[in-house]
Design goal:
Aminopeptidase
């Protein structure tokens, strides 16, 4: 199992990244024992972020966290506390109107894309770089796999949109997936240009 921290140009195993308030964040692969804690974090942050859009979920939280087509998943921890304070996964793009938009924008078939999914952070540590570190780890994994990174984001979650924009993601279209509430704006489809992966313009790379 590898832990990742963003450095000036790469992600190294079992290193830590200083974040606001002199705390450090470690990003490591998710393990089954993380799921109960992640379920609690997801529930507690939902009133603050509006993510997920449908709450309570129509299925067990564990099914939301561990999805079909998952290629990898990571959690973030702070300092020496092993309890996760954030999560991200990478999945195959699946099917739906989002995929058509990504394929048209990137110019590559769906099987050469990978989607950043289920990114959330404990609201009590929001703004301390946790979300950015998780996003960088996911992008590094996707780049290493030779796929192109894509994602969708609900327009009403402005903090999430701003996070992706700060990391170089670009809006390439809109779509209305089946799970989106009828009173919401279409989700934004985003892609990440080649050579962009870590805040500050450095390229993220995972090493094993």
């Amino acid at each position: 199992m590898l832990g990742f921290a963003v450095t000036a140009g790469m992600l190294r195993p079992s290193r830590r990244l200083p974040v606001m308030g002199q705390r450090e964040v470690t990003v490591r692969e998710r393990i089954p024992a993380d799921l109960p804690v992640l379920a609690e974090v997801l529930e507690e942050q939902q009133p603050h972020t509006g993510y997920p859009q449908r709450w309570p979920l129509p299925s067990p939280v564990e099914e939301f966290l561990t999805r079909p087509g998952e290629l990898g998943a990571w959690v973030a921890t702070l300092d020496d506390d092993p309890a996760p304070v954030g999560h991200v996964s990478v999945t195959t793009p699946g099917s739906g109107p989002e995929v058509d938009g990504w394929v048209a924008a990137v110019g590559r078939p769906a099987e050469e894309l990978a989607a950043v999914s289920v990114l959330f952070v404990d609201h009590r540590v929001s703004g301390r770089g946790v979300g950015g570190a998780l996003l960088d780890a996911a992008v590094a994994f996707i780049r290493e796999s030779g796929r192109a990174p894509v994602l969708d984001v609900v327009q009403e979650t402005r903090s999430a949109v701003r996070l992706y924009e700060r990391h170089g993601w670009r809006v390439v279209g809109e779509a209305r997936p089946w799970w989106l509430p009828a009173d919401h704006l279409p989700v934004l489809l985003m892609t990440l240009p080649d050579g962009v992966g870590v805040v500050g313009g450095a390229q993220a790379r995972a090493t094993k």
